[in-house]
Amino acid sequence: MSKSPEEEFPQKAFGWAARDTSGHLSPFKFSRRATGEDDVTFKVMYCGICHSDLHSLKNEWGFSTYPMVPGHEIVGIVTEVGQKVSKFKVGDKVGVGCMVGACHSCDNCSNDLENYCPKMILTYNATYYDGSKTQGGYSDVMVAAERYVVKIPDNLPLDAGAPLLCAGITVYSPLKYYGLSEPGKHVGVVGLGGLGHVAVKFAKAFGVKVTVISTSPAKEKEAIEHLGADSFLVSRNQEQMQAAMSTMDGIIDTVSALHPLLPLIGLLKPHGKLVMVGAPDKPMELPIFPLLMGRKMVAGSAIGGMKETQEMIDFAGKHNITADVEVIPMDYVNTAMERLAKADVRYRFVIDIANTLPKTA
Ligand SMILES: [Zn+2]
Ligand SMILES: [Zn+2]
To answer: pLDDT tens, 193-216?
Structure first.
């Protein structure tokens, strides 16, 4: 007979889990493996709430298993390291993002692209090497292999830094890979939410010209005055869109709802790239003719490898880039999920795990 989640492993853990597709989160006692020779164990201080958490909790992508402790923007303080761990010591500020394992022998892994390994192991709602179920950061303690842990620069606040581990790398990696981080380039950012607002910050730090493209005219002031975007387009305003045709080297599209791609492709210069980082749950219509006529590209991107994730967070430290966050107590999480579903957050919820989770035990 298999042991209960509480007795499966030696390290006691406490978090909030969903038990079924209602996605409702409630207190959950479980356990984590002992600190292995390559492992880093840390006390979780904060965990960001990513839109993927909401999709996963409600099984909207169809592969959820329960009980599920979500959370893949996890930051904390190291409490124990294995004998072979060389990069971290007790007391370090660290983080774990969307993945905790991969095969380490394929081409992707050899090239520091664990995120594209066919055997990549997600931080939660996946099966670890030992057959156990991975559980995320809405919990008091985390254990992860050193390779999947990043060092958080001292000057970055842990709460506002947490979302960089998913939202940050999700936009940083395509800006770099698709050549959109070179000064002088003009980059569009579609959607001003959790991903979009950090995309604007990274792009500005790279020295590129940034235009935010949004359905909501009300976001113009915020985009320009607060986030530092150079210009703003209301996607429903034909005149504005027409005037901006063929001006952008690339676009980072963060919107996960269905939306027309043709106007965005029109904004690209010849050879421009439209990079999708949001994940609509239905296929979208892709007009081909305008792609041919400008040798344009529609592409995708998913987080980044661990080497690049460390590079991203070091860059964020150097340029003081953090997410704009609303820090919440653990017992507010179900309300936060309802608000997130309505995009009612500027721009990321972060759970104050260390101060508020124990009180819910
Ligand atoms: Zn995420
Ligand atoms: Zn691999």
So the answer is: 999 999 999 999 999 999 999 999
